[in-house]
User: Fold this.
Amino acid sequence: DAEITQSPRHKITETGRQVTLACHQTWNHNNMFWYRQDLGHGLRLIHYSYGVQDTNKGEVSDGYSVSRSNTEDLPLTLESAASSQTSVYFCASSAGRTLEQYFGPGTRLTVT
Amino acid sequence: GQQLNQSPQSMFIQEGEDVSMNCTSSSIFNTWLWYKQEPGEGPVLLIALYKAGELTSNGRLTAQFGITRKDSFLNISASIPSDVGIYFCAGLSGNTGKLIFGQGTTLQVKP
Assistant:
């Protein structure tokens, strides 16, 4: 069955380190998205991509970057992790810009 | 920016009761989505609505896309303990593919 996976599921890192979270989908969806979820803020969009080589900034993109070298993967990189980036991160994908998004299981990141 | 107001924030009900929650916006959306999230998991899509006035069911769940395109409703009939979780509404505007989420309704069901 097609699916969307994230790895790792849990990560603890130190302030200042570079961290990359992986997202992989097998639906062949063009659109992929990264969100962070925090108490009191709900789900907020970090970056998104409409296809290979396309990336766009979302609502809370500072300190994050993404790259899209193929259809299946959209890794999220924290260039220099900060404690404010402790959160749960979700990846999602959709077949079209006006269509529903499907979410991965999430990565819980703790920055100490 | 765009915001969705979701209410109520939380509900504590008895098993067997019906549940209603809603989402309102000051902006128009072309698509309304309802998700359920359980602890430690990602949001799972329950119902997608694409047309104003549309009424769609998924088992005991029924959702409606408001006529004004600025609101949506989710009803759960005859609640059971496994309905426990956080329910999110989300709106898609234009053709950007960017979802705007409500703050969520936390549902607890007492057996």
